[in-house]
Specification:
By secondary structure, this protein is an alpha+beta fold. The chain has eleven helices and 36 strands. The radius of gyration is 30 Å and the shape is globular.
């Protein structure tokens, strides 16, 4: 018996030792496995005609072999486990395969060599084709460009320092399904270049809505911006950050446990149900904000209700409801059934209805709208209708409303919501730019600025600093940097006035003094009531024109509209000269030139007369006999600014008084 127990003990020890050995061996094996960054993967586009880098990780001292295009490259990992090799330049071609071997082997398929662009900015660069699928339905349906590829980097942040790796991602080609997730601006940019030169185009898209430029810069790049650097240092202090995170978590937990206060959801018969009988509802118009219709300063939940008579021909088939844009969140119910919802204000509401939702005759439409700040309701000048079986029903007009909940103003230190990490200096650079930088690229596309419009003077310094920062990090010389000047936005002011958005456009215009940069002017492509205008095609194609001139040295291309060059006072007139006049200056609507203002030494601007004389514009006003300064399209929304060149490209806004 004792002997049996002894054998059992020895067997147990042997098994334990064997398990430990196998664990250690498997751990060593796992560490030795060569691993690649997300970018180095199937379908990738490598930069043609350039030395390109391929890198990854394995065990320290591991030998790695890379075979590509008939050549063999070898590397040994350093103490940090990282390895890197540099491929010889190759011409635009493909598909290639790449074999990477260490203790394991990885094969990468369907590799192209072409031109690679790093695409970045905020929401107008984020906006995917799917968000504009009505305007660009045909472009999506006919997308058949296997040599245009897009790598989308999910939003991620890091306050501690530059990261080594990106979150999960993959290369996708432009086909009717995958193109929906392409940046619309970037896709139209790539498509125009591909159609012109038949060279594969790779797009690496790191863009996040609502973010300031400082979030996209490295700590070194912010060295001349003391306030931003102080914030970077503060955010590294866990004694500062952690209590804020704990308070934010506690606040979120408390809010999630609060009972629902909306009467429309707590009533025994909910306000969207078919059995509900409305009482005490008042008239209101759609579209429109409720603050403009007799409701003062309300943040809360407001319910809208209307009975819509639907003809039989529009029933029994799939339908679509267009509800424009709603500030901020909404849920749509039809005949008691929830058929769609959106949680924030910017997307246009396009809700698809399966067959059977709409009934012949009376249908009850109910929309619950939540607003958290500013004016709430339905944005004007957007589509509001039901579409089915090639027929439409207008949803604009008089509805009834009732307030379901009133949100109390938030009080306290302001830290209960935590830190908006994606808006912190360096947060997006560290997580979404730094891991890309070893990848060889052709150039950079940038569309951002809306979030910095509150401080355009600072932006005038930040944009050139960003360019210098990224060029320094990529170590590819003066990388071409193409960017978008902000379009028209907000209400039209028909008097000469000051404008932060005009100052932001000036900051972009002056950044052209940085070598190897180009700018797309989009002054007429915006919408007064939408910071995310629908026209993304012209933006992308104007960036492509800029690339044709700057990067591809296409001398036949007129890449920009007129840009102010100089001003000369001649008696009671000012004569303006421009570059980029192309085939000549024109008024694009054949009307008198508009949005020119003139002033004397007092800088009191009045509207001016202006006419084209050859390649110059002459500006004057009887009210200003001794003029000194001119402004053009100097406003948030200079609707109808009409100075163009004959190639159809608009002049950039400018001023001479600064």
């Amino acid at each position: 018996m004792k002997y049996d127990n002894l054998i059992k003990v020895k067997k147990s020890k042997i098994i334990h030792i064997l398990v430990l050995f196998l664990f250690q061996f498997s751990t060593f094996g796992a560490l030795a496995q060569v691993r690649l960054p997300e970018l180095i993967s199937d379908g990738m586009v490598l930069q043609r005609n350039a030395k390109t880098k391929v890198w990854g990780w394995a065990s320290p001292g591991e030998k790695v072999t890379v075979r590509f295009d008939g050549r063999t490259y070898r590397a040994t990992t350093g103490a940090d486990g990282k390895w890197l090799i540099t491929l010889a330049p190759i011409k635009a071609a493909g598909p290639y395969t790449m074999d990477i071997k260490a203790s394991n082997q990885i094969k990468i398929n369907d590799i192209l060599a072409g031109d690679v662009y790093f695409v970045s900015g905020q929401s107008n660069m984020v906006h995917q084709m799917s968000l504009h699928n009505i305007t660009y339905a045909e472009d999506i349906a006919t997308a058949n460009y296997p040599q245009i590829r897009h790598f989308w980097i999910p939003t991620t942040t890091n306050l501690e320092g530059p990261a080594q790796e990106l979150p999960a991602g993959s290369w996708k080609s432009a086909n009717p399904e995958d193109v929906n997730n392409f940046s619309a601006v970037a896709y139209f940019f790539a498509r125009k270049l591909y159609n012109q030169y038949k060279i594969p185009i790779g797009l690496i898209n790191a863009s996040v809505g609502g973010t300031p430029i400082e979030a996209w810069m490295s700590e070194e790049g912010l060295k001349d911006f003391a306030t931003a650097l102080a914030t970077v240092d503060r955010n590294k202090d866990t004694s500062y950050v952690n209590p804020i995170k704990r308070r934010a978590l506690a606040t979120a937990r408390a809010n999630s446990q609060k009972p629902e206060q909306d009467k429309g959801l707590t009533a025994s018969v909910k306000w969207y149900e078919t059995a509900y009988e409305p009482k005490g509802w008042r008239d209101i118009n759609i579209p429109g904000y409720w603050e403009d219709q007799g409701i003062k300063d309300l943040n809360g939940a407001v319910w809208y209700r209307r009975e819509i008579d639907v003809p039989a021909a529009m029933t029994g088939v799939p339908a679509k409801v267009f509800l424009g844009r709603i500030v901020d969140a909404d849920a749509l119910y039809i005949n008691g059934e929830k058929v769609g919802n959106t949680t924030y204000q910017y997307p246009q509401r396009r809700y698809s209805l399966p067959a059977g939702i709409l009934k012949p005759g009376k249908n009850v439409f109910v929309v619950r709208v939540q607003n958290f700040n500013g004016k709430g309701g339905f944005v004007p000048d957007k589509p509001y209708y039901v579409e089915a079986n090639n027929q439409t029903l207008d949803l604009k007009g008089t509805w009834q409303y009732k307030v379901g909940d009133v949100y109390q103003p938030v009080s306290g230190s302001g830290n209960d919501g935590g830190i908006n990490v994606q808006n912190q200096p360096t947060a997006l650079y560290n997580a979404m730019v730094a891991p890309v930088i070893p990848y060889t690229i052709k150039g950079i596309l940038w569309y951002q600025g809306e979030s910095n419009a509150g401080n355009p003077a600072e932006y005038k310094k930040l944009l050139p600093a960003l360019i210098a920062d990224w060029r320094n990090k990529w170590q590819q010389g003066n990388l071409p940097f193409l960017y978008v000047q902000l379009p028209n936005f907000m209400e039209v002011n028909y008097l000469p006035s000051e404008s932060n958005w005009a100052l932001m456009r000036e900051a972009a215009l002056e950044t052209l003094s940085v070598p190897n940069t180009a700018m797309a002017v989009t002054i007429e492509l915006g919408e007064w009531n939408d910071i995310h205008p629908d026209n993304k095609k012209d933006v992308g194609e104007r960036l492509a024109l800029a690339a044709q001139k700057l990067i591809y040295d296409d001398k036949k291309v007129v890449s920009s509209g007129p840009l102010f060059q100089s001003a000369e006072v001649d008696g009671n007139k000012i004569i303006l000269s421009f570059t980029n006049v192309g085939s000549g200056l024109v008024s694009n609507d054949e009307e008198e030139l508009s949005w020119f203002a003139i002033a004397g030494a007092d800088k009191e601007f009045v509207w001016a007369k202006a006419r084209i004389e050859g390649d110059k514009v002459v500006v004057w006003s009887e009210e200003v006999p001794e003029p000194k300064y001119v402004r053009y399209a100097w406003a948030d929304n200079p609707a109808g600014a009409n100075l163009y060149n004959k190639e159809g490209l608009p002049a950039s806004p400018f001023r001479t008084d600064e």
